[in-house]
Design goal:
single chain; 12 strands
């Protein structure tokens, strides 16, 4: 049976878990077993539950208790479900809740690189992407367009960032992902070595006069390929490009030099997806 609790004050016990904590605070590095993350909107929360993630507590707009939120609440008995009008919820969280629902969920241990890449033929490596909107969009395209895993360099946003999860529409729970290393000095040298040890050829998506085009047959014929993508604007660092087996570009028209990294990822994933 649902434990519905009406919020009466901003400092009500139990509600602080939703109150503008930083990502570092939610990770709780000193006590990682107590770490958590936030999933936003009923659909995204259901995808997380389907993937086996454990709900801790729920914050929900009172208007949707018996409609959009009902299924999620029924799937999460015996946890507190805090409810109030949307204005009060916005004061608590500091932002307007997407679809009126937020769920605190237990943070799992990050997956190991070798586990994320087990049986993988196509992976994407995102290098230093700190824009959570771009990161979430890349995850969504990777899951939809045939990538087997997403790998992240050390200074990327964590995939369980609330906004990354939301923009990805929950695909961070559906596609394997792992940090390729946790120290900046391990990338690209050590990280690239790990990819090569696992049998991957690496393709840097970059503007270069020496680049081959995305539709080059040699890329599709690679049994295992890692597509490496960089930040918006700056792109990949020269040392990362130099460490890759191929430099690849998407042919442009009408004087356009490049695409947004999220849009470019979708094009690259579709073109380079496994052929059988």
């Amino acid at each position: 049976m649902a434990n519905i609790i009406e919020i009466t004050t901003l400092d009500m016990p139990g509600v602080d878990i939703f109150s503008m904590l930083t990502e570092a605070q939610m990770r709780n590095k000193k006590s990682p077993e107590n770490g958590f993350f936030l999933a936003e909107s009923p659909k995204v929360i259901e995808i997380a539950l389907d993937a086996g993630y454990e709900a801790i507590s729920i914050l929900v707009e009172d208007k949707i208790l018996e409609s959009h939120a009902k299924t999620v609440i029924e799937r999460c008995p015996n946890i507190p479900v805090y409810t109030a009008n949307i204005n009060l919820l916005t004061q608590i969280t500091g932002y307007h809740l997407t679809k009126g629902m937020l769920c605190a969920m237990k943070r799992p241990t990050d997956q190991k690189l070798t586990d994320a890449c087990a049986n993988a033929r196509r992976v994407v490596v995102i290098d230093s992407i700190t824009n959570v909107t771009n990161e979430g969009a890349i995850f969504r395209s990777a899951a939809a367009l045939g990538m087997d895993a997403v790998l992240l360099t050390p200074n990327c946003c964590h995939p369980l960032n609330r906004r990354t999860v939301r923009v990805s529409m929950g695909t961070v729970f559906q596609i394997p992902w792992a940090f390729i290393s946790y120290e900046n000095e391990d990338w690209p040298k050590t990280g690239m070595a790990k990819l090569h040890e696992m049998g991957f050829k690496t393709a840097a998506m970059a503007l270069s006069k020496d680049a081959i085009t995305l539709d080059h047959p040699i890329l599709k014929n690679e049994e295992k390929l890692a597509i490496v993508m960089g930040t918006e604007g700056d792109g990949l660092p020269p040392e990362t490009i130099a460490a890759c087996d191929y430099v690849v570009t998407i042919p442009m028209q009408h004087g356009v030099d490049s695409l947004n990294v999220a849009a470019a990822s979708a094009v690259a994933f579709w073109e380079l997806r496994p052929q059988n």
